[in-house]
Amino acid sequence: MTRIKRIAFIGNSLPRRCGIATFTTDLQQAVAASPLPLETVIIAMTDAGRRYTYPKVVAFEVEQDRLEDYVRAAEFINKGGFDAVSLQHEFGIFGGEAGEYILDLLDRLTVPVVTTLHTVLAEPSTAQRRVLERILAMSARVIVMAEKGRELLLAIDGANAAKIEVIPHGIPDFAFVEPDAAKLSLGYGGKTVILTFGLLSPNKGIEVMIDAMPLVLKSRPDAIYVVLGATHPNLVRDRGEAYRESLQARAAELGIGEHVVFLDQFVDRPTLLQYIAMCDVYVTPYLNQAQMTSGTLAYSFGLGNAVVSTPYWHAQELLAGEKGILVPFGDANATGQAIAGLLNDEPRRQAMRRRAYADSRHMTWERTAERYVSVLEEVSAPKRAHNLLRGQQTPKLPAMALDHLEAMSDGTGLFQHAVHCVPDRAHGYCVDDNARGLLLASVLDADGRECLPDRLTSAYAAFVQHAFNPDSGRFRNFMSFDRRWLEEQGSQDSHGRTLWALGVAARSGASASRRQWAAALFAQALPVVESFASPRAWAFTLLGLHAYCAVVANDKFAARLRLVLADRLVALLRRVETPDWIWLEEGLSYDNARLCEALILAGRATASEAYGVSGLRMLGWLMARQTSPSGQFRPVGSSGFSDIRLAPKPFDQQPVEAAATIAACLAAWRMTAQPRWRDDASRAFAWFLGSNDLGLPLVDPETGSCRDGLHPDRRNENRGGESVVSYLLSLADMRQFERVALVPDRSQPLHRGDIQPFPKPQFRGRLVASNIPEPAGPLSPS
């Protein structure tokens, strides 16, 4: 069995002083010490205004409030050959509202993530719930340290019980010893020692324990309460040592100052274990019930201490069954009585110690590391499996199966969505998907090997016809299952996509009558595009114009509008492009490659080098960003559509992006005869078959169904209309590579596509002014 080799831990790291830093460091060291040949690194979170001298194991540092550091950390992990990531999550250690900056890192990761939740809230704020739900969705597994954590998570919408693991807080593997030797070595010989350790802060309830000490001293006058730990750095920054000083003053007022010892130290592990070993009773008088995890409690319990604690969640579970004593929150009298009772009942105290020690053996860091590695192995298995597919540059093409497309269609048209493979009537229909269906029908008619059943093609065409509103010149988009239009007009993009389908139908429809219908409706719906502002609507219209103008050569308005729309796209590119951003928008969005395809085809049809070279350059740049470090196709994830000039996020990956890429590569291949475009298209098609980040196929070749996409940890099992048509269009395009004996088109000047890397365009041919946002004046159909 292939084992994981590299693991990245994200969290705080020593020498930063906090519980998360200690946990992250302890876990990393325990995993690194396992018998497996594992390489481990830490991605360390650094709080604002602080600097730490990190050890070499810290391979990358993220400043808490610098969003760009999170993006760079994701790139570091993705390019670093890591098999999995272990994230330590606490809302307060990450930047943004409720620590939302960590989502920008997770969104971009291409390796599986296992998240350990150090805090699970019963009543999270709106922002905290939003962040937690996103983390749950992006994590392949979620680890909590108590059953209460699992219970609270399952109350959250979208939580998946199968993803939740309960792994207790790790503890050092320390021998069960009596406290006398440790007391002597630390200078407390002959004393009865009560201990609390950890960073000092008001929620720890130290004042309650101080108030309890007079009751303890009545029966054990030799007792001493040791408070070991530095004041929390955030508290020192905001208030100095006022809290520690107030506790010391409180002890003095009670006349027990000599019985309360404050050790303002952040000690290393060996010293800490000595202090834990010397105590007769360990106490955690915390004030907050909603404490899911306490490392100090776990350590003391694991060393076989008798523990008195308030009933916060972690203590309730760990100390159940006479393995400790629980006392009410803030009750000094009950706390003092419980401690005094244990100190004066040696048999009970020793029995409690032995039960705690025996029950904690499964919690040692060695055992904890084994469980973490096992979980990390499980989630990375699909990632490893996909490596077997990496060499399949030219996958064998499945047959054109239309069963699922037929199941997703009725007499009205193509349903938008499905629940698994069952059409979802609740969301009705849209012109977008029915236009795609009409496009597929026309493409298959042109190919001639298979055709859609005429009832499907007729339904899609009828839907498109009914969607058109001649009064506005626009297509409606969304329709309910009971055939009610849900809007007066659709988006510009849906209008452009429908024109694209009509243009191809006008050229390639099976019957002359349908071709004439498509051409007439195309001409009727075309003029309004002149006023559109959406680059994708321009591109979709250009794709339709490419087909329409080939059969309606005398439509001067259409010919002129094609030049105007192509000019607009090239003008945008000239405005937005920088040396490292060869694109015509500030960010990447959906159907990106269609912009490239539109310019390539416009260049081919008009003999304009400016159009064609721009499209080729953009496609080459886009493909570099849609290729994973392992060489697989990785479409731009929809979760990053709003990002500005950032590396694309890898999830959620959708079939429409693969379909657009394959079509654009086919256009580039026909233009240039370069094998690279055929290879790129093959990689994009292999994504459907399982050569992807999860190593999971999205299609069922027997039925032609296609899942709606890839999440970070799983496939989207729903198989909607857009997905099935995207897959079938991709298959039809891939068959063109097999069928066409390519002869480069030498009748045009665009044979420069073999230039690598793509040069900045030298705009010869039609002049494209950089200041042309819209046509200079209105165009009239002629």
UniProtKB/TrEMBL annotation:
Q: What is this protein called?
A: Glycosyltransferase family 4 protein
> What Pfam family is a match for this entry?
Glycos_transf_1
InterPro entries with a match to the protein in the record: 6-hairpin_glycosidase_sf (IPR008928), Glyco_trans_1 (IPR001296), Glyco_trans_4-like_N (IPR028098)
The scientific name of the source species is Devosia neptuniae
User: Which UniProt key words apply to this protein?
Assistant: Plasmid
Positions of the Glycosyl transferase family domain: 189-357
Where does the Glycosyltransferase subfamily 4-like N-terminal domain start and stop, copy by copy? 48-171
Keyword Chaperone in the entry? The reply is no
Q: What Gene3D superfamilies does its record include?
A: Glycogen Phosphorylase B
Q: What superkingdom heads the lineage?
A: Bacteria
Is Membrane one of the keywords UniProt gives this record? Answer: no
